[in-house]
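Sample pair:
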Amino acid sequence: MSTPKQFDVVVIGGGPGGYIAAIRAAQLGFSVACIDEWSNAKGAPAPGGTCTNVGCIPSKALLQSSEHFEHAGHAFKEHGIEVSGLALNLPQMLKRKETIVKQNNDGILFLFKKNKVSFFHGRGAFAGTADGGYTINVTGPTTETLTTKHVVVATGSNARQLPGAEFDEKLILSNTGALAIDAVPAKLGVIGAGVIGLEMGSVWRRVGSDVTVLEGLPTFLGAVDEQIAKEAHKLFTKQGLKISLGCKIGAITKGAKNVTVEYADAKGEAQKAVFDKLIISIGRVPNTIGLNAETVGLALDERGFVAVDDECKTNLPNVWAVGDVVRGPMLAHKAEEEGVAVAERIAGQHGHVNFNTVPWVIYTSPEIAWVGRTEQQLKADGVAYKAGTFPFMANGRARALGDTSGMVKFLADATTDEILGVHIVGPMASELISEAVVAMEFRASSEDIARICHAHPSLSEATKEAALAVDKRSLNF
C-alpha cells in the first residue's frame, strides 16, 4: 500500500464552491488537494460541477443560441435584415455548448496548475481520522489515499426526483437530459416553473417546441417580487409558453415514445397531457452519497444537508462545508463566496458572506434579477417603505435594442431611504443588478443612485430613473 499523500487542506468537490475554495486556500500558502469525479464523454476530468457541466454554463450557451435563432426568425426583419432559408442545425448548437463546457473544464484545470493545487480525478470519501486530521480515499479513475488537517466538503446537489417518474434522461429528463435533447420535441412538458424549468422551457420553445409548464404552487415565481413576477408571467405567456398554476400532478406514464401526465388543474378538474419529452424541475437535493459521513460522525440535518453554523463549520473540528450541500440559496456565486470565506477562515482571517446581498437571476428573455427583499416580504414584516419603478419602454437604449419589455423597481426604507431591495425584469437584468448589489453592500440610499451620473444612452439609466421614482421625481416617465 502506498504512503498517503499529505495536505493542509483537501476539498471534496470541484464545483464553484470547491474549486474556488481550493484556489483561495492555495493563494494563502496552504498545500491543497481538490477531488472531483466529473468526467466528460471521453472519460477525461471535467471539474466545475453541475454548474459547468449540466447547469449554469451549458444552459446559458443554449439560451444564447436559441435566442439568436428566434431573433433571426422574427426580429431581424424590423432591423432591415432579411433572412431566407432559415434552418436550425441542432447538432451544431449542441456541439457549441459542449465546446464551451470543455473550455471551462480546461480553464479550471489550468487554474489548479497555476495555483499549485493538486487535482485528483475520482470520488472523495472520508475513511477515518489520523494524527489530529482526516484520511480521505479517492476512488475512480484515480485511486489515492490523502491525509489532511482541514477538509472542505463541496459536493453540491442533485436534481430532485418525482416519485413514480424517475429520470431516464430519454423521456423523463432532469436538467442533464434537458440540455442534451437531440431532436426538437413537438410537445414538451415541464413540471416546475422555477429557474431551471423556465430557462429550459424557453430554450426549446424558441427552436420550435410547443411547451407546457405545470406548476404546483398557485402563484407564479413566489420568491420574486409580486409585481415583477406578474409582468414576467404576462411576457412569457405572450411569447407562447403555456403556464398552468396550481396543478396537482397525478400519474405519469411512459410510453414507447411519449409521456402521459395526469393532473388536476387549479379548479380541481382532471386533465391529461401527452408529451414527447418531460422535464422535471422541482428543486434539488444535497449530494452526500458516497461521502461516508457516518465514518467520522459528520452531522447531516433533517433534510440531508451537511449541518453547518454561520461560518460553514460542521460539527467536526476543521471540517467545513460550502455551496449546495449546506443551507442557503443553491446558487453558484453563493458557493464561490462561501469557498473564499472558508479558505480565509482556515488562515485565521475573517471571511464574510452577506446572504442579504446575494443576487438572484433567471436567464429567460427578458431576464429577471433581484437582490434584497420583495415588496410582499416588507409588508409581511411591517416595514415602512417607498417604491419606485421605471419601465424599459421609456429607455432610449432599450428602444434601440428593440427590447423594451419589463421594468426596474426600487424599494427603500420610508424613513432612512436605505435601499431594501431592487427588482428587475428586462434586457440584461443579470448585469444591471450588480449596481444594486454594490449599493446595498455600502448601505446606500435610493437618493445615492439617483444622484449618480449614468451614461446615456444605456440600460442602466432605467436603474437611476427607478431610484428617482422612489421620490416621485422620475425625469423620463
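The chain has three domains: 5-159+285-353, 172-282, 357-470.
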